[in-house]
UniProtKB/TrEMBL annotation:
It comes from the Bacteria. This is HIT family protein. Pfam families: HIT. It comes from Luteimonas yindakuii. One of its GO terms (molecular function) is catalytic activity. InterPro entries: HIT-like (IPR011146), HIT-like_sf (IPR036265), HIT_Hint (IPR026026). Residues 38-107 form the HIT domain.
Length: 143
């Protein structure tokens, strides 16, 4: 895939940690221990909206959203999965996939603006990333 001109928005880089490089997107873990929260960032220069992607890219992104949702389900067994592409604060196209629990701090409301992000402690971050890596290996083995 040609990624010429693609750069990860500085805010997304600051707010997340890399998990995997997928066919179209970077898969990243949002640095907020309040919620298991992934974000997909298509490596397409100047993409702001879904309509900025070609048809094949939109199909690929849908497949990657499915993968991220299944990854969260396998790794943390949430009560609900939230999927959103807002981009009001960061214009670069990115899709949030958030694991929600009935006892999480924002339930049942959206996570945005409920409470400040709580960055992972270093050891918790390592364990969270390892749990996702194990779940990715399990999903790949079952594909």
């Amino acid at each position: 895939m040609d990624t010429a001109g693609y750069h990860l928005h500085p805010q997304l880089a600051a707010d997340s940690h890399p998990l995997a490089t997928l066919a179209l997107s970077e898969l990243r873990l949002i640095d907020d221990a309040n919620y298991p929260w992934l974000v997909l960032v298509p490596r397409v220069a100047d993409a702001v909206e879904l309509i900025d992607l070609g048809r094949d890219q939109r199909v690929q992104l849908t497949d990657e959203i499915d993968f991220a949702a299944r990854l969260l389900r396998a790794a943390v067994r949430p009560d609900k999965l939230n999927v959103a592409a807002l981009g009001n604060m960061v214009p670069q196209l990115h899709v949030h996939v958030i694991a929600r629990f009935q006892d999480d701090p924002a339930w049942p409301a959206p996570v945005w603006g409920r409470l400040a992000a709580r960055p992972y402690a270093p050891e918790s971050l390592v364990e969270r990333i390892r749990s996702f890596q194990r779940a990715m290996a399990d999903l790949a083995g079952g594909a």
